[in-house]
Amino acid sequence: MKSLLLLLSVTTLIGILAACQFGNPSGGDSITVFSERHYDSDHVLYDRFTDQTGIRVNIVHHSADPLLNRLENEGEDTIADVLIIADAGGLERAKNRHLLRPIESAFLTDVVPENLRDPDNHWFGMTMRARVFVYHPERVGASELSTYEALTEPAWHGRVITRSSENIYNQSLMASLIEIAGEAHARDFAEGLVNNFAVRLDGTTTPRGNDRAQAISVLAGEADLAIMNTYYIGVMLNSGDATQIEAAQTLEVFFPNQATTGTHVNASAVGVVKHTSNVEAATQFVEFLLSEEAQRHFTTSNYEYPVNPNVEWADLLNEWGAFNAQDMNLSALGKHNRRAKEIMDEAGWR
After folding, report:
1. With DSSP H G I counted as helix, E B as strand and the rest as coil, what are the percentages for the chain, rounded to 5?
2. pLDDT computed for residue 201 by the predictor
C-alpha cells in the first residue's frame, strides 16, 4: 500500500513539473490545431511541445478558406483549439468572422512587435517572410533594380514572372500597395505588371506554378526576374533536387523599395479559436511557438525571419543583409484582400 502511494505521489509530481514548464493547462491533455502550414519542420516543434508539457498536438491540415469555413460551420461544436494560417490576412479574416478570441498573454504582447499582431490580440505573427525580386545575374544588373512599381516600365516588357492572382502572397502584396498609396496606385501596378509578364514556354503569359517554379523558370530563361518569397530560396538550397539547388545557387535576391516604402513582408500567424474548450493549453501552445527555442527552429529549418526580436536570423538570411520593411500593421492585408483580388482580376492578372 505504501509503495502504491509513493508511486502515485511521484507520478503526480512529474505531471505538475511538466505542466509548469509552460504553465498549467486546464482541461484535457491534447489540443487540436487547424493549420494551413505544411512543413515537416513544424511537426518537430509540435513534438517538442508535447515532450515539455505532456499536451499532445493533433493537426488538421487544409488551405485557409476551407479551415475558416469549417470553423464557422462547426461553431461551438468545433474540435479546434488553435488556428495557424500562412498569411496574416487570413487571420484577420478569421477575426472579422468572429472565429477567434483575444489572447491574454503578457509574454506575447512583449515579444511580438505591434505591426505583426492584431491590435486587439486576436492573432499574433509567428514567422515572417519578405516578397522580393529573384533575378538571373547574367541578364539583370543590380543597378537596374529599384521598386515594385519600376517593374511596370517598358524596360521590363516580357521579362517578369510571378504566381497567379489566386495566390495569397500576391494578393497581400497588392493589399499592401492599397494601404500605402491607394487603389488607383495598386491598379496601375497590376496593369503594368501584367503587360510585362514574360511569355512562357507554352506561348502564353498566364502565371502558373508556385514560388519555386518561378525561380526555376528564370533559371531556364523563360524570364529574367521573378517575384517570390525569401524562404523558398533556403528551402530550395536544401531540397535535394538538383534543379532547385542550381536555381537557388545561381539566382540573386534583391529587396525592393528600400529608398521608398520598404519591402513587402507578410507573416504566418496564429490565434486561439473562439469556441475552444481548452483556452489555457491553447495559449500555452501559442506562447511556445513564439519562444526563443521555437523561433530559432523556424529560422534555421525553414529560413523564415523570426518574429521574436531576441532570436538571431539564420546564416542565409544574414548573408542577404538587413532591409527596410513596409511600415504598416499586417491587419491591413486582410482589410484590403477582397479589393486587391478584384483589382488583379480587372487588370487581367489570372
Report:
1. 50, 15, 35
2. 87
